């Protein structure tokens, strides 16, 4: 019989890894990254293929995201606006 996995052990965070953002335990894949792909329309199976993570890990990350959606969505929106700002700042100027 297989050993049961406590799903609470699948997500971790520590200040010295990924700036303290929640991530899939034992990896550098953040919940925020998985949530971003999810918001773009990727399903769990597609995300698992992209990352090499198990479906259990993906679903744990998505459960964490949905439990903390306001905070993670705010971080994703800030990251997108910062990307746009930097892209505009470094876009070549017309001559």
Please state how the strands of the largest beta sheet are arranged side by side.
Answer: 1-2
Overall 3D form: elongated
CATH superfamily of the domain at 11-67: Winged helix-like DNA-binding domain superfamily/Winged helix DNA-binding domain
How far is it from the N-terminal to the C-terminal residue, by CA? Answer: 70 Å
CATH topology of the domain at 11-67: Arc Repressor Mutant, subunit A
Give the second-level CATH assignment, the architecture of the domain at 11-67: Orthogonal Bundle
CATH class category of the domain at 11-67? Mainly Alpha
Q: Percent of residues in helical segments?
A: 40-55%
Number of helices: 4
The portion of residues forming beta strands comes to: under 5%
Largest sheet: 2 strands, antiparallel
Structural class category: mainly alpha
Mean pLDDT: 92
Low-confidence stretches: none
Please trace the helix and strand order, writing H or E for each element: EEHHHH
What features would you describe in this structure?
- 54% of the residues lie in helices and 4% in strands.
- It is built from four helices and two strands; from the N terminus they run ββαααα.
- The protein has helices at residues 31-39, 44-51, 55-67, 69-89; strands spanning 11-12, 23-24.
- Strands 1-2 form a two-stranded antiparallel sheet.
- α1 (31-39) crosses α3 and α1 packs across α4.
- The mean pLDDT is 92.
Features:
95 residues, elongated, 2 strands, mainly alpha, Arc Repressor Mutant, subunit A
């Amino acid at each position: 019989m297989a050993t049961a996995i406590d799903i609470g052990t699948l997500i971790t965070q520590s200040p010295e890894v990924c700036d303290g953002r929640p991530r899939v335990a034992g990896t550098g894949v953040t919940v925020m990254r998985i949530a971003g792909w999810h918001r773009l329309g990727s399903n769990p199976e597609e995300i698992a293929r992209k990352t090499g993570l198990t479906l259990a890990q993906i679903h744990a990350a998505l459960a964490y995201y949905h439990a903390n959606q306001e905070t993670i969505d705010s971080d994703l929106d800030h990251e997108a606006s910062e990307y746009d700002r930097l892209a505009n700042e470094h876009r070549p100027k017309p001559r």
